Amino acid sequence: MSLPPLSPEQLVKPSHFELRMSLIFATLFVSQGTHLPYFPLWLQAKGFHAEQIAVILAAPMFLRVVTTPMLTALADRASDRANVYIALVAASMITSAGYFLPATYAVVLAVSLLLTIVWTPHSPMADSLALSGVRRFGSNYTAMRKWGSISYLCANVVGGFILAVTGPRAVPVIIFIALGAALVAALLAPRMGRPRKASPLSATEIQQKAPSLFNAYFLYFTLGVGIITASHAFLYGFVSIYWKSIGIGDSVVGLLWAWGVVCEVGMFLFFNRIFASISVVRVMMIAGIGSIIRWIAFPLVWPLGLGVAGFFVVQSLHAVSVAMVLIGLQKMIGETVSEERTGAAQGIAYFFNGFFMAAVTLASGPLYERLGVDGFLAMIPIAVIGMVLIRLASRSAPEHSVRG
């Protein structure tokens, strides 16, 4: 089916389009780069135990797999997606102020649930605006998106140094200020009108195109990707708390998180030179093996006296266990899913990733409560299940790739 034609207004490139989108990406990822590594530390500082932390982290994950496609579909139907993006960023900033209220379990959980509804769509909506510029005007997506990765890294590092001085109480302040900066950038968002192609997470496109994707290869593969990804839930939820418990300072915690992201970016840069000739199934199996090695190594680093340097080495595996999964998924979709179904394929993969990550995050609280760092060992069978599903997918792999 051909795409609808562009209106005369949509044929005119907004002034300074790339600069405005770069600013949006740069401000978008500061809050995310603060929330992932440091929000669990703030929760612990407020007196929540591991099981409560797991619920506060996991409940929003369950919710957002439902609400995010609904909101991206709303944005697709709006007269201009930029207006929806501005409204969501403003709502996120206002909602995040709820963390300044007395930090009872009910209040923090309620704020987290409300915040995830309006916060999670930021990234796919910014991607949608940027990709419209790529399609219409030939803009360079990576040149714009790289500022998001840079700001995420800076948030990891600078956030750690701020917390070293102020303690975890600064986390809600940083998130609030970062969302305020994102709102200023959002007000400068280029007006692009409705998209000619639905957002990758659009509920509308998933409903229309998903039935044709329900084949054994696609389902086994995306399920396997979701489960291997979910084996990282213990890391994301509790590794900062663990590092702090053994005396590692906030600034070093920030550097450890940042190093993982640096290694991830390095894999993106050099993947084609190293793994271009390897099948997508083998790419994913390597990623699964990297995950297993990582979960075996984490509990051993400190008892073996390898110190902080040992954790930096283990964090280097982020390039394998995370980056190769992301690349492998996109490689599979590019090889086997036709262009008109790509958005639905992305949406289904997002659902599986989000659901399994939420489920394992919920289980990670009791694991950390009872086992401490040895809870990483429970992530090994999860990664193995994901690899088994990838192997099952290989038995149903199509003989020919999609061309063009």
UniProtKB/TrEMBL annotation:
Main location: membrane
Transmembrane segment boundaries: 21-41, 53-75, 82-101, 107-126, 147-165, 171-189, 217-239, 251-271, 283-302, 308-329, 350-369, 375-393
SUPFAM superfamilies listed in its UniProt record: MFS general substrate transporter
Domain Major facilitator superfamily associated: 20-369
Pfam family, one: MFS_1_like
Cell inner membrane keyword on record: yes
Domain of life: Bacteria
Location of the protein in the cell: Cell inner membrane
InterPro entries per UniProt: HcaT-like, MFS_assoc_dom, MFS_trans_sf
Membrane topology: Multi-pass membrane protein
Keywords, alphabetical: Cell inner membrane, Cell membrane, Membrane, Transmembrane, Transmembrane helix, Transport
Database matches in PANTHER family: 3-PHENYLPROPIONIC ACID TRANSPORTER-RELATED, BLL5896 PROTEIN
Stated name of the protein: MFS transporter
